[in-house]
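[User] At your convenience, examine this fold.
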Amino acid sequence: MSTLSLAVRDSSTMLRRNLLHARRYPSLTLNLLLTPIMLLLLFVYIFGDTMSTGISGAGTGRSAYIAYIVPGLLLMTIGSTVVGTAVSVSTDMTEGIIARFRTMAIHRGSVLVGHVVGSVLQSVASVVLVGAVGVAIGFRSTDATALEWLAAFALLALFALALTWIAVGMGMASPNAEAASNNATPLIILPLISSAFVPVEAMPGWFQPIAEYQPFTPAIETLRGLLLGTEIGHNGWLAVAWCLGLTVLGYLWSKAAFDRDPK
């Protein structure tokens, strides 16, 4: 069997293993998924009318804020979902299964690939669910073309891949599952201080650089532009650059940690 065939076979096995774990123990994914859904319902039904007035003017109702907030919540969903990946990887590293895998005749990279592909699939499924909730409460994207929808889906998948590799690195660097969950908390906090809920220009001047110069804001503005027809500007290439940079960083970090001899 060629090296490529071996890698594909073992990666598929590890992917099935991780999907089975997610199916048998869904509580972690569901708990993390509830955060963006609760925030969506809270901001729309409690603050929606007021926020819509601030963004689009009086008389627009909460529909304007639904359109504004859903793209940000979709990306926040990815950040929440991959926290479970960090916990899962840390659990594998600390409970001895990785040491067992090291003694078996399997492709070394398949363990990481299984975690990454499984996490991306879970992130996409979570995004679809949160998107369905958004549509149910009134979100509409009537002006987006088929090409723009395809670009939006590609951005979500690329963003999920980037954050997943970072989460894998966090999981491997953590001494236990609790520490992994804590270390991955910035992936939930960053969208809260981005343009997901209010425009950057509406924030205090000293705080605007914090919201602007981070990966979530350009990705949110790009997704918002694709789905709603708003101006994307330089955010498109910034979002792609952030995704590629985080993917490379997370991959190198994870690979170095996995290849390191166990203590």
Summary: The mean pLDDT is 86.
